[in-house]
Design goal:
Length: about 325
């Protein structure tokens, strides 16, 4: 995924409300209840080594666990393929963090290294199938040598798998659930409704900065797939999520007709130039392809607008997704 996506996500997960919802909503372990979530503190970029600082998409937090700290290393992974050696990368990053903690004398009261929770946040379309522990990457040798294999698991949050299996409940008001669902929204109206929920949840004055971070994320990452090219500049001055939601709700009513008319116009022109029925059929396919590339509408809706069978739409979607 591009640098803008990484940066936008880093801004979101640099807010305590988002990290709190991540821990309470997605780390299903008893010790989470013993954390002092009011003590959540982002580790300054000046704290980490040059090696860790180069990990632009990653965020490090710490939170009180009794008299000591627990560190949360959040690795944000946006790529189209699964990294089979992610567990090794995690071991390396955690090791670098521990070296810096020793250097800074940030040990526990018992003069030990503090616990670190490594989390990999993955939003690719393919389901994650890489090893979740570095020990799985090392060849086992009988006779006692396996005793020396490194052993470090990480917590994987595969957004697509979570959205597919999670029972969605708006009562939890978990902003991370909303982020995951926006990343994998079914259609434009679904996204508008989710953004509306976030506006409602983040009304408090102390959430102003988080609303702005969400507005930036929506503008940079989600809007380009929805907004007609000639309207892009109109969205740039919008810095608050409520403004984005209001404008999106209003403009979205006009877009399906515009997409359809633009696609039909292009298709008709091809049909006239070709002088054959094949041209008109190609025009319908162009209409559908245009909507597939620039909108998040579901296959049935696109089929109805383009006057094609839904199976043809599915084939076009497969062709687009298989492009290198």
């Amino acid at each position: 995924m591009n640098h803008q996506h990484d940066h936008s996500y880093k801004l979101l997960f640099s807010e305590p409300r988002v990290v709190r919802d991540l821990l309470t909503g997605f780390v299903k372990e008893e010790w989470i209840d013993r954390l002092d979530l009011e003590s959540l503190e982002k580790v300054s970029s000046t704290f980490v080594t040059d090696d860790l600082r180069d990990r632009e998409g990653d965020v490090i937090w710490r939170v009180r666990f009794g008299d000591d700290w627990v560190y949360v290393y959040l690795l944000i992974e946006f790529q189209s393929t699964v990294d089979p050696f992610m567990a090794l990368r995690i071991m390396t990053y955690v090791g670098l963090l521990y070296q810096e903690l020793i250097k800074q004398k940030k040990l526990t009261n018992n003069n030990k290294l503090p616990p670190v929770l490594p989390i990999v946040l993955y939003n690719g379309e393919r389901r994650w199938n890489a090893a979740l522990n570095v020990s799985s990457l090392v060849q086992s040798v009988p006779g006692g040598l396996e005793h020396y294999r490194p052993d470090l698991p990480y917590l994987l949050l595969d957004e697509g798998a979570i959205v597919a299996s999670e029972q969605w409940s708006i009562e939890t008001q978990n902003v991370v659930s909303a982020i995951f669902r926006l990343e994998h929204h079914r259609n434009l109206q679904d996204a508008i409704d989710l953004i509306g929920l976030l506006v409602h949840w983040l009304q408090a004055p102390e959430q102003t900065r988080l609303r702005r971070h969400f507005a930036l994320w929506v503008r940079r990452i989600l809007l380009p797939s929805w907004v007609p090219e000639n309207e892009g500049a109109a969205w740039q001055p919008l810095n608050d999520l409520n403004e984005v939601h209001n404008m999106l709700s209003e403009r979205a009513k006009q877009w399906p007709d515009r997409w359809k008319q633009e696609g039909i116009k292009a298709g008709r022109q091809e049909g006239i130039e070709a002088g054959r029925q094949e041209g008109r059929q190609q025009g319908r396919r162009d209409t559908a392809r245009n909507m597939l590339e620039r909108t998040s509408m579901d296959d049935q809706t696109i089929a109805d607008l383009a006057e094609l069978d839904v199976e043809q739409i599915r084939q076009l979607r497969d062709e687009l997704q298989s492009r290198p």
